[in-house]
Amino acid sequence: MNVIKWVFWITIWTIVVGFFHYTLPQVDIVRITDTYEKRVDFGDNSIFWSNADVGNNNSLGNRDVFFIQTRRAKGDVMVYRNEDTGWGWPPYFKFDTTNLQAEASDLRSASGAPQYVALKHYGWRNEFLSIFPNAISVRPVAGPDVSKGIPFLNIIILTLFAALIYAIWVRWRRFREKRIDPTLERIEDDFAEKQGRFSRWITSWKKQP
């Protein structure tokens, strides 16, 4: 039972950590090398793509998606998609995909005269599943070594989540101590009493001539 319990809780907390890591915003310091638009045919990875831009009705299995190609200071490449989140999840209420693409295009630079930017995004990059993080905003910065800033939003959300979990745990503990534990104790006492009676009956039966 202990093994099952540990596997259960490890699975639950892995899902929770993965959910927050995918959903909460992150900032990368990168150099934009190119921007482009590409028609994407959605398949098994469709849950990692947003819906069509707000105001557009696209019931097809494909549509045009904006992309932003970047390179980090150490040389590795990162590609972001640029899609509206609209009123859906995650709740970034992003409606300015076209404007963001224009800003990113204006901030393109070559390796000889690099212009670094702070690109805020959420999501993961997975080449095997063709998953791309979604860009939220972009702003120019002085260089590749600038501070990404303190993630106040992430701190607030995680603090509120921890407070919620603690409140639920405290109420569950009180409920268990008042209702469940006494009930289990009564059941154990009744079982022990019945077992004692049965043992005494067996003993008395054996003593009969």
Please tag this protein with its features.
2 domains; 22% strand; 5-stranded antiparallel sheet; single chain; 3 helices; 5 strands; 209 residues; OB fold (Dihydrolipoamide Acetyltransferase, E2P)
Q: How far apart are the first and last residues' alpha carbons, in Å? A: 46 Å
Let me know the average pLDDT.
86
Principal-axis shape equals elongated
Low-confidence stretches: none
Strand ordering within the main sheet: 3-2-1-4-5
How would you spell out the order of helices and strands? HEEEHEEH
- The helical percent reads 40-55%
Radius of gyration: 29 Å
At the fold tier of CATH, the topology name of the largest domain is: OB fold (Dihydrolipoamide Acetyltransferase, E2P)
What class would the helix/strand composition place it in? alpha+beta
Task: Specify the number of helices.
Answer: 3
What share of residues are in beta strands? 15-25%
What's the CATH first level of the largest domain? Mainly Beta
Q: In the residues, how many domains can be counted?
A: 2
- Architecture of the largest domain, CATH level 2? Beta Barrel
The number of E-state strands comes to 5
User: So what's the oligomer here?
Assistant: single chain
Profile the largest sheet.
Answer: 5 strands, antiparallel
Protein name: DUF1523 domain-containing protein
Keywords: Membrane, Transmembrane, Transmembrane helix
Transmembrane segments: 7-24, 149-169
InterPro entries: Phage_phiNM3_A0EWY4
